[in-house]
Request: fold
Amino acid sequence: MTCPNRCSGHGDCTGSVCTCEPGYSGSDCSLYDKMIDEGWTTVLYAYSPIGSFMVYMLFAFCAFLLFGFIFNFSRGLRGVNAIPLYFYFTSSLSASDYQLKPGINGM
Reply:
């Protein structure tokens, strides 16, 4: 006797009954439950590598800001001075960048 659908390639046939691998179920081991043996990061990477990369980069950026702030705060810097790279990004802006400028007709 053979097992139904030859256990779909995800189990062992013993006495015409399928013994399924972890993560698979059903009479022919065709049902897959992705959350049984995989964490959410594995599932995220498997289905969207770009999305996974973006999640890890966002985490790294937040960690950089947090540890940079803690480092600067421990050196005695307070307020915006403690924010990492704050003055690097804002040094090219001047107060006139935030003011309204007259239009073509001089209004």
